[in-house]
Design goal:
globular; single chain; alpha/beta; 16% strand; 7 helices; 217 residues
Length: 217
């Protein structure tokens, strides 16, 4: 009797198959680009702070080539406030490297629809997401939750959409607590931008000066 295939092994085989296609189809066309990046280093056009959600790929959304975007992904695309201490600060460390070393000219905070982190923030955290996810969300995004509940009627779908946009605005405010971000914004070396991608429609919206989000035409 034949043993059933191991789903995990099959998934890994699929990934290796994807790599082989990359080597056969993509690498020959992009070889010179990768070689120039290896030789000359990176000079990305923007730092993108986005969610870890597997359905949102900033490189695909912006149709960017390798080397164009410095991407930081975490749960709910959050930027914590400036707090230099002995704790581990992965997002802040990447932000510091992108701004102070690579000197990116712009930062984009990219939120998205149907964010699981935001859903948990509003409706409660599932079992198994309480050691790190819960303190990450409640410690950083409590203000986004409060703003949402203060201005939105008790409608789960509307609250979800509103809070997703509030996390983008909150992260932009937190970026300005970093002194080397604020100083570069003040003298024009750095600009900050907010956006949201709807995975249901493929529409990207950008944050306007009046606080609304407008679809990019």
């Amino acid at each position: 009797m034949t043993e059933p295939a191991d789903p995990a092994a099959a998934s890994l085989d699929d990934l290796f198959a994807g790599y082989r296609r990359f080597r056969e189809e993509v690498w020959p066309e992009r070889r010179r680009l990768f070689q120039s990046l290896a030789r000359d280093g990176q000079s990305p056009r923007a730092l993108v702070i986005s969610c870890s959600d597997s359905r949102v790929d900033p490189g695909m959304v912006f149709n960017a080539a390798p080397g164009e975007l410095f991407i930081v992904r975490n749960v709910a695309n959050l930027v914590p406030p400036y707090k230099p201490d002995g704790d581990y600060h992965g997002t802040s460390a990447a932000l510091e490297f992108a701004v102070c070393v690579l000197q990116v000219p712009r930062i984009i905070v990219l939120g998205h629809a149907m964010c699981g982190g935001v859903q948990a923030l509003l409706r409660g955290f599932p079992a198994g997401a309480q050691d790190f996810v819960e303190p990450w969300m409640t410690g950083i995004a409590a203000e986004a939750r409060q703003r949402t509940l203060a201005c939105v009627a008790v409608d789960a779908e509307e609250a979800q959409a509103t809070c997703e946009l509030e996390t983008v605005k909150l992260s932009l405010r937190n970026l300005m607590t970093f002194p080397w971000v604020a100083s570069r914004v003040a003298d024009g070396r750095l600009t900050l931008h907010g956006g949201s991608f709807d995975i249901r429609t493929g529409v990207l919206s950008r944050l306007a000066e009046d606080g609304s989000f407008i679809a990019v035409s």
